[in-house]
Design brief:
This protein is mainly beta. It has no helices and 46 strands.
Length: 757
């Protein structure tokens, strides 16, 4: 409840669009660790630990799968989680797996709530030094540790490392990769410049055509020499070697039979919001790498880009490596443009700049980018019933209910793809959450109850009808719905601006104050009225963090892209229509108006009709709880009476207009504004406080929504002459007009007499 709020009748209720309120979940997590990180390939072991945590920070349950790129976990192994943890030993023996050297990827996978969560680590596998391959004197040092996609090597005075640009080349695609050799002095690790490095290969080629198996490059100032190896006609893995002075380094180039890049739609909704919304503006995009037998291919680098022609400003992760299930996942993030985005994926070819022109390609389905921020201009708040018979009891208010709804969409009419909380405040009565009220039409519901106290009695406006101390607004109840993380309405391109989907200085907008309940209907905040203290931007210093100050604040003078938006709705408490008892032909009161007046007499065989408007004690209409108006004869036998009446529908006893106007503040911080005219975005905007649009409602006319209709009285034929030929005296019949509904103990009545000849 806002600080400083002194009105006890305020009730707040939270309702959520799309999803029920609850603690926000973080993504589930799977962490994979290895200890030790380096083992030998003659039986050394490392303990692999997998730790799973669910979205609420609790230990994960179920099973996890662990696999390795080489070694004894290549086939994968299922492990059962115990208190969120599972362990397994890993070894990589070169005698049984020739690829057991260098850095070996260890991957863990856990399926939770239908989604795959993965984690990985690496173990460096080294060969115990046994001298050079020619069985000559021992090497000057042990085998090299891994320095990328490096299998091994020897060194003496000089040391050489070899790194591969990517994990594999794709067969039959013209794929290529960069080899990087780094030459240093063994004892000082000083880079060796201007030295020749010879690269040789057992497959592929150092040119784009087959046959070039050797190439030489000189090291630069950092000791680095590079060469590019092409897959050309290679059908299987091959080895490349770099040699300089007494140092060698070698590694295996994996040749992969990738055939297909298959997009995997893993999300329930492919809708994201523009970046400035700050929520739901990114989404995972997955492609599965498959071979010619439709089997997943791990450890393949997949390049991503946004397809030309997509909504501008978006970004996608440039590269990802496929896991043991062949899945490569990127993240698509939106810009500020709405529209659709398609992601393209490719394996093989160069990665920079742009996308390769050849290789295995795939294309995602369409992802839709919407504004996704609740719009003040599109917020609609209504209550199903307007007239509630809360006064129709000896001790009002009678507890009655109506459904009130807030429809929350963005400025383009699209739904908001994340939970939205609607806060309700009332002048009187209460608004409570309605179980099951969330729906897929972007609407949040609440049930308003009339129970509690009566609305604030107010002073009549000029021209407002009065019945003693009563006037229509005495029973008028204001209800507001407020939605956080919204944006103020603006007119794109107005004031000579450019239509570009965003607000630009000089364009017209609606300047919102903090939400408040206008209990006395004077279009300004008065001390004691319920309000919501919100984070507010200082227009003079927009970079400063938004603040709250414990008091109500009016419009701040600048367009707000992230503000609490709100709207008012209204209901009226009504009573029985005014009753005039049994007095025959009383003078009509303001609460029952005839046009023309009921006839005093009607000639034989003629009829007379007159209209009526009938109000309750506050000039409001009877609530429509099985309401009906009838007419009947109560005294006499001559003549007939009938009535046609308008009793259904929901309306006030007056006209209420919700509108957007230009207004000038009477004084800084007063909350009082003078209305300058309608909000016309076609004219130049002179700037706040001279011309900004504000929301208001106004009472356009009074006594426009009563119970009304027409009464028709039909005279009988003339009486027969007396026996002596004289004319009988006129007879009088008393008719009664009755109004009632299911809340009343007895009808409201009005009696009138008509004379017939």
């Amino acid at each position: 409840m806002p600080r400083g709020l002194r009105v006890a009748a305020v009730i707040c209720a939270a309702v959520v669009v799309y999803a029920a309120c609850g603690p926000a979940e973080n993504p589930a997590d799977l962490t994979v660790t290895a200890k030790p990180r380096t083992i030998d390939n003659h039986g050394g072991k490392s303990t692999i630990t997998l730790t799973a945590t669910d979205g609420q920070g609790k230990p994960g349950t179920g099973t996890v799968r662990v696999s390795s790129a080489a070694g004894d976990l290549v086939a994968g192994q299922e492990l059962t989680l115990a208190e969120g943890t599972a362990t397994v030993d890993f070894s990589c023996v070169v005698a049984t797996d020739p690829s057991c050297t260098g850095t070996i990827a260890i991957t863990g996978e856990w399926v939770v709530k239908g989604k795959l969560v993965s984690g990985n680590t690496t173990v460096t596998v080294v060969t115990p030094d046994a001298g050079p391959p020619d069985a000559g004197p021992p090497d000057a040092g042990p085998s090299l540790p891994d320095a990328g996609s490096f299998d091994g090597g020897t060194y003496g005075v000089y040391r050489l490392s070899l790194a591969f640009e990517k994990n594999a080349l794709i067969k039959g695609t013209g794929d290529r990769m960069l080899l990087t050799a780094t030459l240093t002095e063994t004892t000082t690790s000083t880079a060796v410049a201007d030295a020749g490095v010879t690269f040789t290969t057992t497959g592929g080629s150092f040119a784009s055509t087959a046959g070039t198996l050797t190439t030489t490059a000189a090291t630069d100032a950092t000791g680095v020499a590079t060469a590019t190896v092409y897959v050309t006609d290679a059908m299987a893995n091959f080895r490349v070697t770099a040699a300089a002075f007494d140092a060698t380094a070698y590694g295996t180039v994996v040749v992969s039979n990738v055939n297909t890049l298959q997009w995997v739609d893993t999300t329930m909704s492919r809708v994201i919001t523009v970046a400035s919304t700050g929520r739901n503006n990114s989404i995972p995009v997955q492609f599965k790498v498959l071979d010619s037998a439709s089997q997943p291919v791990p450890n393949i680098a997949v390049n991503f880009r946004i397809k030309p022609g997509s909504a501008s400003g978006g970004q996608v992760t440039p590269t990802a490596v496929s896991n043991t299930m062949g899945i490569a996942q990127a993240t698509l993030s939106s810009g500020e443009s709405v529209g659709s985005i398609t992601v393209e994926a490719v394996v093989s070819g160069t990665e920079v700049p742009g996308m390769p022109t050849s290789g295995i390609r795939g294309e995602s389905g369409s992802y839709t980018v919407i504004v996704g921020r609740p719009s003040d201009g599109r917020l609609n708040v209504t209550c199903t019933r307007k007239s509630l018979g809360a006064l129709e009891t000896a001790t009002p208010p009678l507890d009655l209910t109506t459904d009130c709804a807030a429809t929350v969409i963005d400025r383009n009419g699209a739904g908001v793809p994340f939970p939205v909380t609607v806060q309700w405040l009332t002048e009187q009565g209460s608004a409570t959450p309605n179980s099951g009220s969330q729906d897929m039409s972007n609407t949040a519901h609440t049930t308003f109850h009339t129970g509690g106290g009566l609305p604030l009695a107010v002073t009549p406006f000029a021209g407002e009808p009065s019945n003693g101390a009563n006037n229509p607004r005495d029973m008028f109840v204001t209800i507001i719905a407020a939605v956080g993380n919204g944006e103020e309405e603006f007119w794109d391109g107005s004031g000579g601006g450019v239509t570009n989907g965003k607000w630009d200085p000089g364009e017209w907008f609606v300047d919102l104050p903090e939400p408040f309940v206008d209990s006395n209907d004077n279009q300004r905040y008065d001390p004691g009225e319920p309000f919501i203290d919100t984070d507010r931007i200082d227009c003079a210093n927009p970079a400063a963090p938004p603040t709250r100050n414990g008091q109500w604040d009016g419009p701040n003078g600048c367009w707000d892209s992230n503000i609490t938006i709100w709207r008012s709705a209204h209901v009226v408490y009504t009573g029985a229509l005014a009753s005039f008892g049994t007095v025959s032909n009383p003078a009509t009161a303001p609460l029952l108006v005839f046009a023309p007046a009921p006839p005093a007499s009607i000639l034989p065989n003629q009829l007379a009709s007159f209209g009526y408007q009938w109000f309750d004690a506050y000039f409001n209409r009877l609530s429509s709880d099985s309401a009906a108006v009838t007419a009947q004869t109560v005294v006499g036998t001559r003549g007939q009476v009938s009535v046609t009446s308008t009793v259904g529908g929901e309306s006030f006893g007056h006209d209420l207009v919700y509108e957007t106007v230009r207004a000038t503040e009477s004084g800084p911080g007063t909350g009082a504004f003078s209305i300058d005219g309608p909000c016309d975005s076609s004219i130049p905007d002179a700037g706040y406080p001279l011309t900004r649009c504000l929301r208001q409602y106004r009472f356009a006319a009074w006594q426009t929504g009563p119970i009304g209709g027409t009464v028709t009285v039909t005279a009988p034929a003339a009486q027969s002459p007396l026996s002596d030929g004289g004319i009988p005296p006129p007879t009088t019949t008393t008719f009664e007009l009755r109004a009632t509904n299911s809340l009343q103990a007895g009808p409201s009545t009005y009696r009138f007499d008509v004379s017939f000849q």
